[in-house]
From TrEMBL, chain A:
It comes from Mangrovivirga halotolerans. The keyword Membrane applies. It is found in: Membrane. The lineage of its organism: Bacteria, Pseudomonadati, Bacteroidota, Cytophagia, Cytophagales. SUPFAM superfamilies: Heme chaperone CcmE. It holds the Pfam family CcmE. This is Cytochrome c maturation protein CcmE. InterPro entries: CcmE (IPR004329), CcmE-like_sf (IPR036127), NA-bd_OB-fold (IPR012340). Keywords: Cytochrome c-type biogenesis, Heme, Iron, Membrane, Metal-binding.
Automatic annotation (TrEMBL), chain B:
This is Cytochrome c biogenesis protein CcsA. Residues 349-542 form the Cytochrome c-type biogenesis protein CcmF C-terminal domain. Belongs to the CcmF/CycK/Ccl1/NrfE/CcsA family. The keyword Manganese does not apply. Pfam families: CcmF_C (PF16327), Cytochrom_C_asm (PF01578). InterPro entries: CcmF_C (IPR032523), Cyt_c_assembly (IPR002541), Cyt_c_biogenesis (IPR003567). Keywords: Cytochrome c-type biogenesis, Membrane, Transmembrane, Transmembrane helix. It comes from Mangrovivirga halotolerans. Coiled coil: none annotated. The chain crosses the membrane at residues 14-33, 53-74, 108-124, 136-156, 207-226, 238-259, 279-295, 302-321, 341-361, 381-399, 431-451, 463-482, 488-508, 515-536, 815-835.
Length: 138, 846
């Protein structure tokens, strides 16, 4: 057999192996309930939870508690099953956090608080919700 | 309200340039195609001239767009959305370059611009290749300029591209514009503070230059197929492939260095999808080059070269799609916001991918292939192995990075997918480390086989010296500077040392015979140094800021985080590794001389970007760095926390930064302490409350005379003098020249520093006011009440609050300099090889 066929075989075999490994390594999107259950059952894996920030009747974001130095904060996230949980993030509040449509938190439960190691946001596209900064006006 | 002028003409000009560039790109694709068809006819020269003129107009229009957009940013025309959202009045000019590419439109322009620059060389030196290659170039330019077109197609209401020349009032729905359409905001929203870094000025232009250069091998390959010069395209494409790989590689590493210096995740590489999106095509690009050189030497691997170049360019387009379409929105922190261009980007990707595959299939039968099999004892075989490892490395990263794309596809067909891309960098590293080990070893073996004529059966013998030397060196290193923690690190060390020795031996032999051929060996030595640097700096990265106090810093943090953070109280010594650490106060950085001065030594002015020195300020060497009453400019968002490191006679100051940006909140950046053997990487994890959140407690009124010593907040304080302010000081303190002002000058001593607190009493038109002065670091504030008429002493109220502190995390990164050294060697090696390949290709053409 010519060596180039062996090369191709190696690539094909490796791709199959990688797909297998990827499906094993990949994280998964869960709800707060599932994440809590998994953590209670001793799982130390990180999970992705998608949700929206809690808002009051007038659409204002509520439930945000920055630490006194503003370098960490906690907030209330409502997941897709409408379940509310407190999330702690040991980093300053990311840019445009309050404006985000959807928030993905990556982390795990420690007791009753979901501690996020990463926060990813889906922000409205730039043509929708930008405001002129009132301070910038004359 | 000031009457502001909307400079409409400049945006119209820019938009006109965009339209011209798009139309001429389309026209020159046709004209170059025509020039190719008429290549050997009587009309050849006129057809080519026509195409060149069209492309020249295209190029000029592109320069026009770039100049126009930059003028809008430079002149602070905030009536334009692009300038308003990416720049601000106080941004230094070099950061305006970053504003230019910060938005998607600007970064497309950067890419378009580099294509034009690259095309000029093809037009000048391309010879018979010019017409077909430039046809491909022009088509690509048409796709790219359509991305910034911003035209709505009438009838079908389809928006084509997003223009950077949109007026703010056309983008944002704000009631202000209804009452006053000519409203121009006073200032822009500014550049993301994380991007205000010198590496971020040059990283994207370098990266996009690399992106632009990858079009050259792709265009040559497509032209080779389509003009049926199946073999001939390789030689002229070779130097460009190498140049692209060098430039793109250097560009990626600049980005890595920026991340190391600016972001506080503690490293230079995080396997973020945006990083992966350029890492993968780079690996394929390097693999393509290696397959191509095998073909130039042995005539085998032609089809493989074509497939590789096509995959490489498809991956470049795929990475563009990933980062710009919004598909990564939920998995990356760094991707661009969605501009609604996903459809256009997808068509761009599929056009070249499907077109390329179709051409390959159509011409496949006619592509000559070598009947001979590759010998195991040949350089070619081992270079193929190297390319194979590079490809596998790329595919391993590609699969998990594409998870958001699978999810979209599954959703498109109505399914639900809950898979998420791995969020832990270790999920990538655990595979990549093995590929890196194999690659480093292969680069050593391949060099031997490539340059030496090794006979079957004698292969092992020729490696014996390097293997023995490797083992000896590794054993020595293990004895002196290696704590065993992970067996993979030892294997990495063996691989790195072997590659250094093997490539080093080849390098010495080549330098004796023909130095121009030494590029490959040098590049591989660079890679070996990088591998050893990564092994040490990551494998032995060590948190040195150990909290030995037993106090919990924040109950929400984990035990580990509480243990790995160190509280530094102002001007009190703490131990960290072999250093004595001392937090020496909040500082600002003066733009004029780059010096750090204490916030308490400067006074604010009406302009937040300017401060005035309230006294003569000297540096450690007793040189005057700011004279009293001198005005300096600075970025008021930045506070630098001066951390002094003392070890014996060695004194090093670090200034980790916290930037308080109105739009972004607080942004933390580390400071680095570079030493020869290691870096210390320090950043603030907790900072004390800002000024307006402090709770001051008033003390008893004090009645004291000049020269008297007493205590405030446990610090020895002396009232040095009470003086009437002179005209100069009245002015720089922002008072009227007819005011009568008395200043009480206190001197306060802490462990190693002397501080000044200067409260005032101001009498204006018979009205008295007391202006207090504070020293946040010591938690002291003093109010000057006046003169006690009975005793002729002075009356003050002291206020106190908690002392200042900062919590830091400090990480030691041993031998990280080897990584940067390796990077430089790699760049030099790429340079030498590129020079050689361009020379060879010129000789061939002549």
């Amino acid at each position: 057999m010519k060596k180039q066929y062996i090369f191709i075989l190696v690539i094909v075999a490796a791709v199959v192996a990688f797909i297998f490994a990827t499906s094993f390594d990949a994280g998964s999107y869960v709800t707060f309930n599932e994440a809590k259950e998994l953590a209670d059952n001793g799982s130390e894996k990180q999970y992705h939870v998608v949700g929206e920030l809690k808002k009051d009747a007038s659409g204002e974001v509520i439930g945000i508690h920055p630490s006194p130095d503003k370098l960490s904060f906690s907030f209330t996230l409502v997941d897709d099953n409408k379940e509310e949980r407190q999330v702690f993030y040991n980093e300053p509040m990311p840019q445009d956090f309050m404006k985000s449509e959807k928030v993905v938190v990556v982390g795990s439960f420690r007791q009753n608080v979901f501690v996020a190691d990463q926060i990813l946001m889906k922000c409205p596209s730039k043509y929708q919700e930008e405001n002129l900064n009132p301070n910038a006006q004359l | 309200m000031i009457l502001s002028l909307v400079h409409k003409w400049i945006g119209d000009t820019g938009h006109l340039f965009v339209i011209i560039s798009f139309v001429t790109a389309l026209a020159s694709s046709w004209a170059y195609y025509n020039a190719y068809r008429k290549a050997n006819t009587i009309e050849a020269s006129s057809a080519l001239k026509y195409a060149r003129i069209l492309f020249a107009i295209h190029g000029l229009a592109v320069f026009g767009i770039v100049v126009t957009l930059f003028s809008i940013i430079y002149n602070n025309y905030f009536e334009y959305h692009y300038a308003w959202s990416h720049s601000s009045r106080h941004l230094p000019v070099h950061y305006m370059i970053s504003s230019f590419w910060e938005g998607q439109e600007g970064s497309f322009l950067l890419w378009i611009f580099w294509h034009v620059v690259t095309a000029m060389f093809i037009m000048g030196k391309g010879g018979e290749w010019e017409a077909p290659v430039m046809t491909v170039f022009s088509v690509v330019q048409a796709f790219l300029t359509s991305m910034v077109l911003g035209v709505v197609l009438p009838g079908i209401e389809l928006k084509l591209g997003s223009s950077p020349f949109m007026l703010l009032r056309d983008v944002i729905d704000d009631p202000t514009f209804i009452s006053n359409p000519n409203f121009v905001p006073e200032d822009g929203r500014g550049l993301n503070p994380l991007l205000q870094n010198i590496w971020m000025v040059i990283h994207p232009p370098t990266l996009f230059f690399g992106f632009a250069l990858t079009l050259v091998p792709f265009s040559f390959m497509i032209s080779g197929l389509w003009t049926r010069k199946y073999k001939e395209w390789v030689k002229p494409a070779l130097p460009w492939t190498l140049l692209a790989a060098g430039v793109l590689g250097v560009g990626i590493l600049m980005g890595a260095y920026w991340a190391y210096e600016t972001l506080n995740f503690g490293g230079y590489w995080n396997w973020d999808p945006v990083e992966n999106a350029v890492y993968i095509p780079w690996l394929f690009l390097v693999a393509s080059y290696h397959v191509m050189i095998v073909f130039t030497r042995s005539k085998s691997g032609l089809m493989a070269s074509m497939i590789m170049v096509l995959s490489m360019y498809t991956l470049i387009l795929y990475s563009t799609f990933l980062t710009r379409s919004g598909v990564l929105g939920e998995s990356s922190v760094h991707s661009f916001t969605d501009l609604g261009l996903s459809g256009q980007l997808l068509i761009y990707l599929l056009f070249f991918f499907i077109g390329g595959v179709a051409l390959l299939i159509y011409h496949g039968r006619r592509i000559p292939s070598s009947q001979k099999d590759v010998e195991t004892y040949s350089g070619e075989f081992w270079v193929f192995i190297g390319a194979l490892i590079l490809i596998l490395m790329g595919i391993q990263v590609l699969l998990p990075t594409s998870i958001p794309v699978y999810n979209k596809i599954v959703e498109f067909f109505g399914g639900i997918s809950t898979a998420a891309a791995p969020s832990d960098p270790a999920e990538y590293s655990k595979y990549q480390i093995w590929f890196a080990i194999l690659l480093t070893i292969t680069s050593g073996i391949a060099q031997y086989f490539w340059w030496k004529n090794i006979k079957k059966g004698k292969a092992l013998a020729s490696f014996v010296p390097s293997i023995i030397l490797t083992m000896v060196l590794v054993l020595i290193i293990l004895q002196i500077g290696f704590t065993y923690s992970d067996f993979r690190l030892i294997i990495m060390l063996i691989a790195g040392v072997f590659s250094l020795l093997a490539n080093g031996q080849i390098l010495i032999e080549l330098l004796r015979k023909k130095p121009v051929l030494s590029g490959g060996a040098i590049t591989h030595i660079g890679v070996a140094f990088m591998v050893i640097g990564i092994l040490y700096s990551t494998g032995f990265s060590n948190v040195v800021s150990e909290n030995t106090s037993g106090l919990v810093i924040n109950k929400n943090m984990t035990t580990q985080e509480n243990r790995e953070n160190l509280v530094l109280w102002f001007d009190e010594t703490s131990k960290m590794a072999e250093y004595d650490l001392n937090y020496l106060g909040r500082h600002v950085k003066l733009d004029e001389n780059g010096e750090y001065v204490r916030i308490s030594d400067v006074l604010p002015t009406d302009d937040p970007y300017k401060v005035v020195a309230s006294r003569d300020i000297y540096n450690e060497e007793n040189e005057l760095i700011a004279g009293k009453a001198d005005t300096f400019s600075l970025n008021p968002e930045n506070t630098y926390y001066k951390i002094r490191h003392v070890r014996g006679d060695e004194i090093i100051d670090m200034y980790p930064r916290v930037q308080d940006n109105p739009d972004m909140g607080k942004v933390v950046s580390p400071d680095l302490l570079h030493t020869f053997t290691r870096d210390f990487y320090t950043y603030a994890t907790v900072i004390p409350p800002s000024d307006d959140e402090l709770k001051w407690v008033a003390g008893d009124t004090m009645v004291i005379s000049v020269g008297e010593e007493f205590f405030i907040n446990d610090y020895v304080t002396t009232l040095k003098e009470v003086v009437k302010l002179d005209a100069e000081e009245l002015e720089f303190r922002g008072l009227n020249k007819n005011d009568l002002a008395l200043k009480a000058a206190f001197e306060i001593k802490s462990q190693s520093l002397t501080h000044y607190v200067e409260p005032l009493i101001v009498i204006r038109d018979d009205m008295g006011a007391s202006l207090e002065d504070e020293l946040i670091e010591l938690g002291i504030k003093v109010q000057f009440l006046g003169v006690d008429p009975n005793t002729e002493k002075f009356k003050f109220i002291p206020y106190t609050t908690q002392k200042d502190f900062v919590v830091i995390k400090s990480i030691e990164k041993p031998w990280i300099n080897l990584l940067w050294l390796g990077t430089i060697i790699l760049a030099v090696g790429f340079g030498i090889s590129t020079y050689r390949r361009f020379k060879e290709s010129a000789k061939k053409a002549a």
